[in-house]
Design goal:
- The chain has an 8-stranded mixed beta sheet with strand order 3-2-1-4-5-7-6-8.
- The radius of gyration is 17 Å and the shape is globular.
- The protein starts with a helix and ends with a strand.
- Helix content is 37%, strand content 21%.
- The protein has one domain (3-192): Muramoyl-pentapeptide Carboxypeptidase, domain 2 (2-Layer Sandwich).
- The protein has 7 helices and 8 strands.
- The chain is of the alpha+beta class.
């Protein structure tokens, strides 16, 4: 595993000064917020988190346990990042572990019996610029370029159901694209379109 990837992964385990201060503010606000409102923000307490992913463009499939006993498994995240690579340029970028947690939350709640189909995972800046030039639906500063977004569908489940579950988790952005047959999810700020 290269050093750059290790630093990116390690950044998700460390508590920076900004995150520390933000945690203090959130802790203060927690006393004023009903417990039910925090339920969607809590991390999945499962001792083991796994994903089964099918890449619709490369025809690759992967089943990986990426977190065990609260610890992310770097080799598994590397393998997941590889399957979620930019299929146009073949570039791999480390996917944000919180995005993987979101995908795990979605598949757990819908009780998925089939692999999660990925339409788009990571996008290189060049790929994103090319797509944005030809479509109004592609953001110029897409979270796909930061390994924080993925476009998905789940065989056996409607897009409306997938969207409803993603929205209920309140873990980031959710975009609904029935004409293109996918739901966009990301771990940016909470918003819906």
């Amino acid at each position: 595993m290269n050093d750059w990837f290790k630093k990116k992964l390690y950044a998700h385990h460390c508590l920076s000064r900004r995150h520390f201060l933000k945690a203090g503010v959130l802790t203060g606000a927690a006393s004023l917020t009903p417990l039910s409102a925090w339920a969607g923000m809590l991390r999945d307490p499962a001792p083991q988190r796994a994903l089964v992913i099918y890449n619709a463009h490369t025809d690759e499939q992967l089943k990986a346990v990426y977190c065990e006993n609260g610890e992310y498994i770097p080799e598994a995240i590397t393998a997941i990042s590889r399957i979620l690579r930019d299929h146009r340029s073949n570039e791999v970028y480390p996917m944000n572990p919180l995005l993987l947690d979101l995908l795990h939350g979605i598949t757990s709640r819908i009780e998925a019996r089939q692999p999660l189909h990925v339409i788009s995972g990571y996008r290189s800046p060049r790929t994103n610029a090319q797509l944005a030039a030809h479509s109004r639906g592609v953001a110029k500063h897409s979270l796909h370029m930061q390994g924080m977004a993925v476009d998905i569908r789940m065989p056996g489940h409607s897009l409306a159901q997938l969207r409803k579950v993603a929205v209920a988790l309140k873990s980031g952005g959710v975009g609904y694209y029935p004409a293109s047959d996918f739901v966009h999810v990301d771990v940016g700020r909470v918003r819906y379109w």
